[in-house]
Amino acid sequence: MVIIPTYNEAENIKPIVARVRESVPDAHILVADDNSPDGTGKVADELAAEDDHVKVLHRKGKEGLGAAYLAGFRWGIEHGYGVLVEMDADGSHQPEELPRLLTALKGADLVIGSRWVPGGRIVNWPKSREFISRGGSTYSRLLLDVPIRDMTAGYRAFRKETLEGIGMDEVASQGYCFQIDLAWRAIKAGFHVIEVPVTFIERERGESKMSRDIVTEAAWRVMSWGVGSRVNKVLGRKESKDS
Predict the structure, then answer these.
(1) Mean pLDDT for all residues in the chain
(2) E-assigned strands of the chain?
(3) How far apart are CA 63 and CA 169, in angstroms?
(4) Could you give the CA distance from residue 109 to residue 83 in angstroms, rounded to a whole number?
(5) A single Pfam family, by name (predicted)?
(6) Strand ranges for 98-220 from DSSP E
C-alpha cells in the first residue's frame, strides 16, 4: 500500500495517483487527507469511487506529516498489507522509481530512496534548500552514529514487521525529524536498512510544507537522542526504543 498524505494537494492528487497505478498496477493507494480546505479529500473520494485500488482516510485536521503517516501505517496493517510505502503527493517522489524500491525490499526490512548516494540527485532545488537537507542528514548521521546518507528522505518502503517492531506508538516527531526517528529506530531494533538512488524533483504546483519550526524540531530532537545514546553507552544502560 502506497500512503500519500495530503493537505491542499487538489491539483496534484489525480496525476500522482495515476502515475502510481501505471507504475505498479498491483499496488493499492491510501490518500490520508488532513481535511484539506481546497477539497483534496473530495477529489480523492472521486478517485476511490472510480478505482477499487484507491482508498481514502479522512482525518479531522492538519496534524502534521508524521501523524498522517502513522495513521496510514496503522490503517494499512489493520487491513492486511505487508508492505507500506511513504510517498509525497507533489510529484517530488517519482512513482516510476517505486519498482526499484520494492525490488530492493526483497532483501531488506526498510528501503530508503536516497538523494545522497551515488546515482541519486535533485532537480530544481535552490542551493539553500540543498544545504539544509544535506546538512540535516550529515548532522543526524554523525550524532546518531548511523551509516545512512539520507536520513531525512521521505520516499521509503517498509515491511509490516519493521513498523510493528520499532514502537510506532512512541513516535511523536514530525517532518524531517519523523523520517530521522523512524530510520534510527529501525537500525536500533536490528532491522536491515538499505538506500537506493532516486531523483528528487521539486514540486511544480502548490506550496512546500517545510518551515523553520520543522528544521528546529529536528535539530533539537536529534541532539537530544544523540547525547542520550552516548550517555547510555557510557553508563552501560540498555536503550529503549524512544531514547
Answers:
(1) 90
(2) 2-6, 29-33, 54-58, 83-86, 110-114, 121-123, 156-159, 193-197, 199-201
(3) 16
(4) 10
(5) Glycos_transf_2
(6) 110-114, 121-123, 156-159, 193-197, 199-201
Largest CA distance in the chain: 58
Instruction: List pLDDT tens digits, range 161-176.
Output: 999 999 999 998 877 7
Instruction: Return the number of other C-beta atoms located less than 10 Å from residue 77's C-beta.
Output: 17
- CA dist 105 → 22, 64, 102, 122 (Å): 20, 27, 5, 23
The whole-angstrom separation of Cα 71 and Cα 115 is: 26
Q: Tell me, what's the pLDDT at 37?
A: 97
Listed residue (160, 158, 28, 30) closest to 82, CA to CA: 160
- Cell 498489507: give the residue: 81
- Which residue(s) pair with 31 in the sheet? 4, 56
Alpha carbons within 13 angstroms on the beta-carbon side of residue 70 total 19
Separation of alpha carbons 163 and 185, rounded Å: 10
Give the three cell numbers for residue 93: 517522489
Left if phi > 0, otherwise alpha if psi is -120 to 50, otherwise beta: which for 203? beta
CA-to-CA separations, 192 to 43, 88, 142, 172, 202, in angstroms, rounded: 37, 24, 19, 23, 29
Amino acid occupying residue 186: A
Whole-prediction pTM: 0.87
- The grid coordinates of residue 5 equal 498524505
